[in-house]
Amino acid sequence: MNSNKISIYLAITILLLFSSNLYSQFANPILIESDTGSITNIITADINNDNLKDIIITRKFSSNNLISYYLNQGNLNFSPEISIATGSSQVTNIAVGDFDNNNWLDIVSIGDATNSVTLHMNSALSFSSQVLDSFTFFESDIGVADIDNDSNLDIVAIGGTTFKVYYNDGMANFTSQTITGPIEDFFDLTISDIDADGFEDVITGGSNISVYKNNNGTLSYDSVRSNQIPSTFNLFVRLVDIDNDGDVDLFSENDNSTGIRWMQNDGNGTFSNLQIIDPSAMNIRSGTLKDFDNDNDLDFIIIKDFNLYLYTNDGFGNFSAPILIQDTQTIISVIESEDLNNDGLEDIIWSADLSIQENNLLLSNEEYIVGNNLIKIYPNPSSENLYLDSPENGVLTILNSKGQIVYKNLPLKKGKNYIKKELVPQLYFFKINLKTNTTITKKVLIK
Question: For residue 257, which phi and psi values (nearest 5 degrees)?
Fold first, then answer.
């Protein structure tokens, strides 16, 4: 690595270390319910159509509530727990989607005393349950996506050595297909279009990380792409855009829970350039990826050693040192994130005990909060021509990584602007002041 690049990365690291506490502040925990150590999963969804995200949980070995929810009543207040399903075993995972197109979100679960895939159909908050399928497994996961592009949500389920897709006709009538591949112990799955062909692909985690390519609505094991991913028992996999280049990268724990890592997507669904984010992260129980500091890139929070740690992203896949968010007397085993109070900031939900923490981003960062997706700068990173798309007229100020002004009040027109100024290779901040008094700051890397 040449000295120029070293200095860039040093600048990025220093910037992150000094900005992390500034951009990611979480309030003290608000207790939703105590004695919730048996929670195995937390998701959020607006299940009563009031434009507020509710909390849905699963429990293990609970005779009262295997699946239940807490309605969001606004201002970070939640209703008492309401049960959907009871039993004497364990639901390992759940997902949501409107399977019968009645404009109410339904729930699908996997795992219980009979190892079942079960639909919990929602009609104005009245749930009715029906078993869709059952097969043998210990650990399992489930996801929802339109696999065959017929505008109806299908279900993807894994468990043990079985991988199944349930195709939906739009009225919650499903036809199942078993997907063949290497025999492995499935544990986790993630769904996204890895090669921009318009079809949702699937990557599974477990004894191996495996890629299942979607070919016009049919999933099949992709040995070439799978063999390019180093894997030994990876229990946490996510397809997300880590480096802000428009395609989904592969984020996962490292082998046998000995670190956190990501691999870059070349845009065609091939993953390479494995980067270890934190090799010291051990006992990773759960994680969530959102833009916690509202600077238009994905950060993540993980549970390691039963505590919560935040890692902030500079927009190019370089992450800060871990920042301790919560060190409780109880054992934290599950975490989720969601904007629970509709203020544009991602809050966190965790257990045990079931608690939420409001994201109190400082008002001094208002420029990050308003209209962050209005401005597009491309290509980013760039070594040649640089363009900026603006929704209206304004002015641009360019600052270097030290906060020093390089160019000030450059005129911007509505639409596409060619940035003609010469910029030496380093990290820059493009501060755009629009005529409507909206201020937006973007990070741009010149290589």
Answer: 60, 40
